[in-house]
Amino acid sequence: MATEPPKILEIDVNANERFSRIKAAFLCKFGRAPEFYARAPGRVNLIGEHIDYCGYAVLPMAIEQDIVTAVAENTSGIVNLANTNSVYPDYNVAVDKVVIDKSQPHWYYYFLCGFLGLKEHLGEVTCHGMDCLVDGTIPPSSGLSSSSAMVCCAGLATMHANHKSMSKVTLAEVCARCERYIGTEGGGMDQSISFLAEAGKAKLIEFNPLRASDVRLPGGAAFVITNSLAQMNKAASSHFNMRVVECRLATKVMAKTKGLAWRNITKLGELHEKLGLELPEMVRLVEETLHCEPYNRDEVCSLLGIASEELEASVLSENTRDANSFKLYQRAKHVFGEAARVQQFRRVCQEAQSGSDAEVMSRLGELMNDSHASCRDLYECSCPELDKLVECCLKSGAVGSRLTGAGWGGCAVSLVPVGEIEAFQLLLKERFYVEAPHSRLLAYNSMFATQPVMGAALYKEAL
């Protein structure tokens, strides 16, 4: 499946309320009908937070909420971008003049990340101009991968508009590199699940090489996504990239301590592989080799035997070059512990038939709770609103609950018995959302039970 290109599906646009609305808006904007539609889903990460860019497997699933783009080629050599949401302004740029301003993460730059990545991947091919109308149902800055879904949708649309075909894996790998144009040093989870997802299945996504394997979730389990109503745009702050840098520094300091060629090792997963230890042993190694207090720049440079200029050039990123305090112990301990929890979560799902639903869900819930505690206390990627939301979810009947996505705002995902979803949602509205009456509509739109859906696909209007 992963070596195949995304599906091209026929759709009766007139019988589909959403596609009919998008087509009508496209006609109004561009004066003609779209030639095809590209769709890429958002995702919820069930467990495995902030470890994909360290080389470790994660366990997400695609959700119903998505980005859909209506597309028609043009002969002007211009990419014309519009959005069905009037909050987002139109934008146009020549295909050979695309520049992405990292300091201004506007919505259209995410689309152009996907366009530019595919354009560069295609090499000498001169890309066609495109008229594009984007429609999204993923709440922005919610931790459900709206930005990556936009990048993937744009990449898929660009591929098809230029009459090319490539596998889902290749598309995922290209699109995973695309967000670096806007300054985000992610690991590839979001793009991988967006392309490789299958209906009814969560996926264990592994890297180097990229591969996905099915994870069957317990039949009595539902996952409910709830919005903390706190928003954080990871491209507009240094929080995300700072964690990437701290993990990179922890890798190098630990590698040098063990006498390895530390300059060539950049990820905690690579260090783990070279040492040949089990994950619990890696946690112990963190406790033995790193101290709890933050490291300052001078100490890191002294430990590695390098000048500050080399640190900036080879380790720090553009928006972390002024950093002078690095929490290496906490970040590394989270990564190794979280990687172990992903393995345990998968194992519990595989063994689900040998235990009762209640027993299986209790074990999964405990892993989710431990994950949130680690994100909160060691990785420090939670926030007061998320912590309160997770606490309210657990009090309202969730078996387990944790932040999902980059954090610092956005959503929580909760494991809830199928028969208790409605009661859970009613209790949570009373416990959490009643204090934010102005946000009730947002809360309603962002609190939903979800099942795994199909990954990215192309749609053509049935004749």
TrEMBL record:
A molecular-function term among this protein's GO annotations: galactokinase activity
Example GO biological process: galactose metabolic process
Record keyword Lyase present: no
Positions of the GHMP kinase C-terminal domain: 361-416
NCBIfam families according to UniProt: gal_kin
PANTHER family in UniProt: GALACTOKINASE-RELATED, MEVALONATE KINASE/GALACTOKINASE
Recorded family membership: Belongs to the GHMP kinase family. GalK subfamily.
Name assigned to this protein: N-acetylgalactosamine kinase
Biological source species: Petromyzon marinus (Sea lamprey)
Lineage of the species this protein comes from: Eukaryota, Metazoa, Chordata, Craniata, Vertebrata
